[in-house]
Amino acid sequence: MIDTGSRTRWRDATVRVGRRWMWPVVLAVAPWLWFAVRLFGPEVDLAAVLLPAAAVVAIAVCALIAILGRRPCYAVPIASLAMFTAVAIVLPRTPHATADPIDPFVFVSANVFIHNPTPVAAARSLADRHPDVLVAVEATQDVQNSLAASLHGYAHAARGELDIYSRWALDRLPRYSDIPKSAAFAVTVDRPGAPFVLVAVHLPNPLHEISFPDHLAMAERLLGDAQHGDQPVVLAGDFNTSDRTHAYGALMTSLRDAMRTTWAGSTYRSGIFGLLALRIDYVLEPTTWCSAGATTFTVPGSDHRGLSVSLGTCPG
Predict the structure, then answer these.
(1) DSSP H or E run through 59
(2) Domain boundary at 31, 62, 92, which?
(3) Domain span at residue 35?
(4) 224 plus 113 within the same structural domain
(5) Which residues, other chains included, contact 161 with Cβ-Cβ below 8 Å and sequence gap of 6+?
(6) Which of the listed residues 92, 110, 145 is the one where a domain comes to its end?
(7) How far is 238 from 196, CA to CA, in rounded Å?
(8) pTM, whole model, 2 decimals?
């Protein structure tokens, strides 16, 4: 028979254990609620962008409590936070390999940075990829002059801070007159036997230029336009859209992320923003197309990584 003293000690021990584990358990479970919270819409996209940095801070706080407070139970939320962060970042970057495209062409896209201190080197890095079609965002006159020399004989079309170069003729399309001229620019690329529409993109930054809901609306505007017409449509450039946001999810409903033929990496790593694991530059192809050889590369003087991938129609 258990005496009253033993019962009291057992109850007190249970209470102490419960108190010791309450916050570690709460902190371990809380991050995973994000996948439910994000259903509330683009209003929570700022949290999606800041998620990696917030997770690092939370892990650091838990580690300090574990070490200074001698509470090893906080290893549980540390492990949970690390696993959640990895899943949240990696999930929209996992490869979805396609068949090798038929008669592929090399597509290159890069934001060369309007204040690039080495414009000639930046232009050379793009030309060295031997593109058949190139989208250059924020290209200055120096970059344009250098590209014109390197890509001699290429067709060139420009609107605002968006430049398109192509081995094949380009025909401007009267689209997107209702949005800022540097946000989107459409042309028909007269590729022999397989013409397609190319939309060069540089959407406003939702962190300080427009709201996340407006950013989503603009992405949906591009998507809606891409779904109409007889020719396939490729969207490429600097979307200022993290792959953890609703805008990216909307674009993926009808297009394929060509850079995910392999593990897709971050494309914007400038300064403190490197902590946010941002992938904001994309090449989006029709779902009837296939891609191969996706890679990113350094653009001297730019705060973005360049993109290179081979595109073409799928076999069969």
Answers:
(1) helix 45-68
(2) 92
(3) 4-92
(4) yes
(5) 114, 137, 138, 139, 182, 202
(6) 92
(7) 20
(8) 0.91
